[in-house]
From TrEMBL:
Name of this protein: Ankyrin repeat domain 10
Domain of life assignment: Eukaryota
Keyword Isomerase found: no
Any single GO CC term annotated in Swiss-Prot or TrEMBL for this entry: nucleus
Lineage, opening ranks: Eukaryota, Metazoa, Chordata, Craniata, Vertebrata
UniProt repeat feature ANK, residue ranges: 57-89, 91-123, 124-156
Keyword annotations of the record: ANK repeat, Repeat
Species of the source: Piliocolobus tephrosceles
Amino acid sequence: MSAAGAGAGVEAGFSSEELLSLRFPLHRACRDGDLATLCSLLQQTPHAHLTSEDSFYGWTPVHWAAHFGKLECLVQLVRAGATLNVSTTRYAQTPAHIAAFGGHPQCLVWLIQAGANINKPDCEGETPIHKAARSGSLECISALVANGAHIDNPKKSIRVLDWLFERHSTRPLFQRAFAVDVV
């Protein structure tokens, strides 16, 4: 889903795209992967804007970079002081949740290496591995498992592997990727 159709609708006569440009330029630069604009904005924007949640998804700029797979933007934001484990107010999702759901293993691996908590549950009790399973991203699941993600969460009634197999018919892919026999 694009930011333009995300549901904030129109505020004060502005289109969603105009609103994103005017009120959330850091977020837009992260969505577009516009590193030059992002770096320029980071030099002139107060630190508090790094934690500013947009009116579309309730995401910070780091969440936008993670969702859209913009690794260079993610790196610049963290260098500028953005927090790796910042949770959204609405759903308590971290950038790792968003990168996993977006199917961006390069961002997820970087977040993990930078110290992101990969076992932190969101408001539904789902961790990043649940989001990766939901989106069917074997690369993200593999990265999470290799870095100590808990496969099963006792607070969730469905096992990650069952979810992955049931929703995405990925049992054969998983068996090849992890060299295991899954019944």
